[in-house]
Amino acid sequence: MRILKKANISDLFYSLCSLLCFFLALVCIFIRFKRLSPFSKEEISIFAVRPFLPQGYVSLNSLNTLNFRTASIPRGASEPIKSTSNSEYSGVEIPKPPVAINPQDEDKHSPGEKTYKIIESQFSSSGLKYENFYVKNIAEKEINIAKELKARPDVHIKKSKEPQVLIYHTHTSESYLKKDEGFFYESYYPRSTDNMRNVTQVGEAITKKLVEHGIPTIHDQTYHDSPTYNGSYSRSKKTILSNLEKYPSIQVTIDVHRDSMGDLERGKVKPTFRINGTKAAQIMIVAGCDKDASNGFPDWEYNLRLALRLQKRCETMFPGLTRPLSFGNFKYNMNLSHGGLLIEVGSDVNTLTEAVYSGTLVGEALASVLNELRD
Three-class SS string for 291-305? Predict the structure, then answer.
């Protein structure tokens, strides 16, 4: 009888332990599910971003502009928008923001037109941290950031009146909001062939800063995504090669874009930071590679070296300006020069004023990097 009673107590103990373990497992599954569920109204961070669409995948007619280049975004890792200054780089005066757009130039909307929310977020802590910046490696190829930063980029800026830099836009009609209202109207279409409203204004801001610092620059505003989006990169390739043939002095080629994240249901994402109390759009520098020698991009390390230097200098001069550098197994015409870069400036729900200001900051940082690479 004693043996039977002990056995019953032991069975009961194991049963209780099993029930407890099962309950804890359910709790863990619930927590995990909540972490992967759509982001809340107040919290957002990037889990995976495809920075832009490769050529030939989408036509302008079939493009869903309000779902364009969306990210898979989990809940719970956002950072508030922080104020910043360039106290870490006191030798440079922070440029003043551009004059805001005239309110009379705002688009007209139908009475009672539906609106969708905009979620502002400052992206920084994603991927590998090195010193004062982050690199998001989606290429599945190991890189030695310290080694590449120490190596000199194959860029040799000359003391000459000949062009040294080419600024261009594969998706030239990408545009921005005019007004910072925290929402956008259903009729908002984030593409425009009006050069006073699209990404060419950002390219112009970068160009002006480079020229101001003694670096002759060509800003080619040729449209490559209109009237058709399909084949944009093939057309921009021709533009690059044409400029390189006409101006063999060009050392650096930069494709300036703007991003798009989020959707109508959960809200569109606006990457933003503050500098001296003024809002500006965050940028994302993109660098490619050739993981398995299939991209026709054998010298990608040279481009990466320049991209890393610019990423570090932007964060040194204007902390908060950059999102993590995106390093992936792609080329997107960056293989046409050893100074080929792609830069995403803000998203389609940043304002044009915010994006142009960031263009000015990027131009200041890029000029600083390039002037150190003079022969």
Answer: CCCCCCCCCHHHHHH
CA quadruple 70, 107, 175, 202: dihedral sign: negative
The pTM of the full predicted model, rounded to 2 decimals, is: 0.77
Q: How far apart are CA 146 and CA 293, in angstroms?
A: 24
* CA separation for the pair 206, 370 (Å, rounded): 13
pLDDT tens-digit profile of 208-243? 999 999 999 999 999 999 989 999 999 999 999 999
**Looking at this protein, which amino acid is placed at residue 357?**
Y
What per-residue confidence (pLDDT) applies to 29?
60
Closest to 328 measured CA to CA, from 286, 297, 292, 298: 286
For 190-202, the pLDDT digits (tens) are 999 999 999 999 9
The domain segmentation of the chain, as residue ranges, is 1-36, 65-371
Report the C-alpha gap between 154 and 162 in whole angstroms: 18
Question: CATH 3.40.630.40: does it fit domain 65-371?
Answer: yes
* All residues at 6 or more sequence positions from 267 whose CB lies less than 8 Å from its CB, including other chains: 41, 116, 117, 118, 119
